[in-house]
Amino acid sequence: MMKLRTFACTTALVAAATTATAASVDYSMLREDSRMHNELLGASIAYLIDENCPTLKLRKFRLLNKAFSLRKHAMTLGYSSKEVMAYVESKTEQNRFRAIAEPILAKRGVKAGDDESYCTVGRAEIKQGSFAGSLLYES
User: Fold this and answer.
1) Distances (CA, A) of 9 to 14, 112, 116
2) What is the reported pTM?
3) 21 falls in which pLDDT band (50, 70, 90)?
């Protein structure tokens, strides 16, 4: 099963890994925050496109910049850096965003196993200037 990367994957490159557990913290404010939801969903969509389209790639530095900004936003909601990292690295949350992203991609024309369908949707995201599109480029 392909690991769903979110902003945390990029942030993890420059931050120490945490051992905080998701079970000990109430993450409902993060789940309900529209910015957190929309940006993590956009990153999930971009990641799925990157993983399945051989000609579109993630803009890693832009992703890193967005990750830091989103982490700062989450911290204004009262969460520590470690708690934010635990949230976005959580398999439960990654699976939750994947379960949201995959039907959105399917609705836009993506077919599992059809790389070009991912590329077509990815190019449309780039052209629209969507959050997911802003994280992608054509190689």
Assistant:
1) 10, 24, 25
2) 0.82
3) very low
